[in-house]
UniProtKB/TrEMBL annotation:
<comment type="similarity">
    <text>Belongs to the TRAFAC class translation factor GTPase superfamily. Classic translation factor GTPase family. IF-2 subfamily.</text>
</comment>
<dbReference type="GO" id="GO:0005525">
    <property type="term" value="F:GTP binding"/>
</dbReference>
<dbReference type="GO" id="GO:0003924">
    <property type="term" value="F:GTPase activity"/>
</dbReference>
<keyword id="KW-0648">Protein biosynthesis</keyword>
<keyword id="KW-0342">GTP-binding</keyword>
<comment type="function">
    <text>Function in general translation initiation by promoting the binding of the formylmethionine-tRNA to ribosomes. Seems to function along with eIF-2.</text>
</comment>
<keyword id="KW-0396">Initiation factor</keyword>
<feature type="binding site">
    <location>
        <begin position="23"/>
        <end position="30"/>
    </location>
    <ligand>
        <name>GTP</name>
    </ligand>
</feature>
<feature type="binding site">
    <location>
        <begin position="139"/>
        <end position="142"/>
    </location>
    <ligand>
        <name>GTP</name>
    </ligand>
</feature>
<feature type="binding site">
    <location>
        <begin position="85"/>
        <end position="89"/>
    </location>
    <ligand>
        <name>GTP</name>
    </ligand>
</feature>
<feature type="domain" description="Tr-type G">
    <location>
        <begin position="14"/>
        <end position="229"/>
    </location>
</feature>
<dbReference type="GO" id="GO:0005737">
    <property type="term" value="C:cytoplasm"/>
</dbReference>
<keyword id="KW-0547">Nucleotide-binding</keyword>
<dbReference type="GO" id="GO:0003743">
    <property type="term" value="F:translation initiation factor activity"/>
</dbReference>
<protein>
    <recommendedName>
        <fullName>Probable translation initiation factor IF-2</fullName>
    </recommendedName>
</protein>
Length: 461
């Protein structure tokens, strides 16, 4: 969708579905995105690919040329697919849970050799909670012994050409994955046998390395969106922009900026916006909307093009004053055609939904995004571990101070999920005898802390 489309005031324009890629580390999320991006660049004519911050748009005609006869563009009126580039990003833990979309659909990548792993289960948990439709990419099929490569071919074709023994080996892995999904209450099957993708999870064998199965993967994503998500893709193109903060970043010359996924309306360079902040909603004015420049054009000048206006769905960097306390995973709303107070109230109520209940006493929890903070709180709640303070951000000396006031030795702890520990905080923790736990996998983090508690309890007996 080009920027000028918003002038048509078409009330029922359809936006691009936003796709998140999830899965365990090393199962091939980045490689799969690279493959899709690479194919899109090869197949797309110059100009067909718009640059996005944190996302790659693959227009329908490009999807169709990668997918070949599996996608007839005449069968679709959705404009393509927008892939979020940071796989495994913890903002995904909010996905669609609050009506607002960070992602509409997801690809869960599972290595056929390695099967289900902790982060696969965590991803499934998120998908279940947010009721996000997804398909499984059973990746690395090229590593099955005896595999006969057919670069970029549909899986049906490449599968047929394998020896019986090779096919059998692959089948075993695929049925294990289907069984694992069923253990998690998802009814799943090989995608070519799935009738109703809304009720069944389609498993698509792929290789991110050779491109086999990628045509099928795109065709299934496109079909799933067109068949089941069309209504949700209806947007008010000229309406006030609605989005989610993907990341908060320092940008030379622009100060603190927010990388934003816009999923409704438009955002303009002079708009007033309300952004979810650490303390209160932040009200500020857009100073610049920044789009990445194509690599070839970057010399010594800015890496970005300044644009006047962007319409959903898009990934855009927003530069504005006072964004220091903006939180990844928080809502972004343009104030246009309605009172500022209403927009602030909306952002507040969205944030209140995510807010974590804290107790008088408990551990301190830090996480990289709102979504991951919420997921941490859920996991700790299940383990009956109370929380005294929960915040987005790196572990800072303040957190140590709070933890050090606990009377119960078990609660003199800070649990950090996907965050750094500031050097000062590390020193303070040693001095104040506060235990620090950090990890990128929630269950390992909780397990680490639980073991520590057990040790203390044993020592007390
Ligand atoms: P991520 O952590 O999930 O993003 O995984 P990466 O995309 O970084 O992949 C991890 C490793 O697996 C890298 O060494 C990749 O080259 C390799 N890899 C990913 N996909 C495939 C595949 O389809 N076939 C093979 N043979 N290797 C793959």
């Amino acid at each position: 969708m080009s920027d000028t489309d918003s002038d048509t005031h078409d009330p029922a324009a359809l936006r691009t579905p936003i796709v998140a890629v999830l899965g365990h580390v090393d199962h091939g999320k980045t490689s799969l995105l690279d493959k899709i991006r690479g194919s899109a660049v090869i197949e797309g004519e110059a100009g067909a690919i718009t640059q996005h911050i944190g996302a790659t748009a693959v227009p329908l005609e490009v999807v169709s040329s990668i997918a070949g006869e599996l996608v007839d563009p005449d069968d679709f009126d959705l404009p393509g697919l927008l892939f979020i580039d940071t796989p495994g990003h913890h903002s995904f833990t909010t996905l669609r849970s609050r009506g607002g979309a960070l992602a509409d659909i997801a690809i869960l990548v599972v290595d056929v050799n390695d099967g289900f792993q902790p982060q696969t289960l965590e991803a499934l948990d998120i998908l279940k909670r947010s009721q996000t439709p997804f398909i499984v990419a059973a990746n690395k099929i090229d590593t099955v012994p005896g595999w006969n490569v057919h670069e970029d071919a549909p899986i049906t074709q490449t599968y047929e050409s394998q020896s019986d023994r090779t096919r059998q080996r692959l089948d075993e892995s695929l049925y294990t994955i289907i069984g694992n999904l069923s253990d998690q209450d998802f009814s799943a099957d090989l995608y070519w046998r799935v009738q109703n993708f809304q009720r069944n999870v389609g498993v698509v064998p792929v290789s991110a390395l050779t491109g086999e199965g990628v045509p099928d993967l795109l065709a299934v994503m496109m079909g799933l969106s067109q068949r089941y998500m069309k209504e949700e893709m209806e947007i008010d193109v000229a309406g006030p922009g609605v989005g989610t903060v993907l990341e908060v970043k320092e940008e030379k010359g622009f100060g603190t900026t927010i990388d934003t996924v816009l999923y409704d309306g438009t955002i303009r360079s002079d708009d007033t916006i309300v952004v979810g902040g650490l303390n209160d909603p932040i009200v500020t004015e857009v100073r610049a909307l920044l789009q990445p420049r194509p690599l070839a054009e970057i010399r010594t000048e800015s890496r970005f093009d300044n644009v006047e206006e962007v319409g959903a769905a898009a990934g855009i960097k927003v530069a504005a004053p006072d964004l220091e306390d903006a939180m990844a995973g928080a809502p972004v709303r343009v104030v246009r055609d309605r009172p500022l107070e209403d927009v602030i109230a909306e952002v507040e109520s969205e944030l209140a939904d995510i807010a974590v209940d804290t107790e008088e006493e408990g551990v301190v929890v830090k996480a990289d995004t709102l979504g991951s903070l919420e997921a941490m709180a859920d996991a700790l709640g299940e383990a009956e571990i109370p929380i005294v303070r929960a915040e987005v951000g790196d572990v800072a000396p303040r957190d140590i101070s709070v933890a050090s006031t606990a009377d119960d030795a078990k609660q003199r702890a800070v649990l950090g999920f996907s965050v750094d520990v500031l050097a000062d905080a590390k020193r303070r923790a040693e001095i104040d005898d506060v235990k620090l736990f950090t990890d990128d996998v929630i269950y390992q983090l909780v397990e680490g802390y639980t073991e520590h508690v057990e040790e203390i309890e044993r020592a007390q007996q």
